[in-house]
Specification:
Largest sheet: 5 strands, mixed
Distance between the termini: 25 Å
Shape: globular
Order of helices and strands: EHEHEHEEHH
Number of helices: 5
Helix content: 25-40%
Number of strands: 5
Structural class: alpha/beta
Low-confidence stretches: none
Radius of gyration: 12 Å
CATH topology: Glutaredoxin
Strand order of the largest sheet: 1-3-2-4-5
Mean pLDDT: 95
Amino acid sequence: MGQNTTIATDSDFASIVASDTPTLVDFWAEWCGPCKMMDGPLDELAGESAGKLNVAKLNVDENPGTMSAYSVMSIPTLIVFQNGEEKRRFVGARSKGQLEAELAEYLQ
């Protein structure tokens, strides 16, 4: 895990995504190669966008309730939440540049 990201669990997920600051949640698993490739870019993005965008990671193997509640069928899945509501969803690995482009509206 990166030093700039928050670890989310089934028990604290609702409070993490309830913020009025947009929160990008990475649904991932330890065995998922593309998920591991996302660690560096997500941590960098989290550090550079502090105050504009929060970044959290939820291990789907350890937190199946949240994964099921949001119908996450494949990983990595990235979902942007604001005030507890899903705003955007991306499925599949992304480079830092792709993330910045797709999240531009939240990074201004």
